Amino acid sequence: MKQQVRILGIDDSPFRFKEEKALVVGALVRAPNYLEGVMRTEVTVDGSDSTQKLIDMVSKSRYKEQVKLVMIDGIALAGFNVIDIEALHSSLGTPVLTVTRDEPDMDKIKSALMKYFHDWRERYALVTKIKLKAIRTAHKPLYACGLGLDWAEFERLVTLSTVRGAVPEPLRMAHLISAAMVRGESYGRS
Fold first, then answer.
1. Options 3.30.300.30, 3.30.2170.10, 3.40.50.410, 3.40.50.1000; CATH of 6-102+132-183
2. pTM
3. What is the DSSP code string of 56-78?
4. When you count CB atoms within 10 A of the terminal residue's CB, does the N or C end of the chain come out lower?
5. Angle between helices 50-59 and 85-92 (to 10 degrees)
6. pLDDT score recorded for residue 23
7. Cα–Cα dist 94/98, whole Å
8. What is the pLDDT of residue 186?
9. What's the rounded Cα separation, in Å, for the pair 17 and 71?
10. Distance between CA 184 and CA 125 in Å, rounded?
């Protein structure tokens, strides 16, 4: 891929579990850090509509043809609204990468899913379907899973789009924008 590839970073906004919906923001960034566009959608808190909502958000956007990688902060939005990475990749025809700062505790995730969701097996299967791998950064590693590119290219794009700290700029920008849209200003760890 070219050096100035456009990456769509996706993150959800702060939300409360008593709320029905949560805002999700996509920040289209020309790597390493030039913001070119912003898009938004809403997903159901702890629902099962995140995959289709992301497909609709990207495919209906005027930026669709420019997006060369969809990078998502984690594999779930708005609690446990788990994204089907294979369906997202297949439908968009675009590489997809989930990224998280900390290595997930799969036992805790499974326990929470079992406790709160009748369809926990389906959700857990989506969470564990694609193996997480570490991506080294200048700080501590990130954990990611992806489809559509070879792993070395995913690592290159994460490195290319990380300007400061450990979080790639598309995710950092999506986080800041989504928090500001809900709370009036950005805050928190991105």
1. 3.30.2170.10
2. 0.94
3. HHHHTSTTGGG--EEEEESSEET
4. N
5. 20
6. 97
7. 13
8. 79
9. 24
10. 36
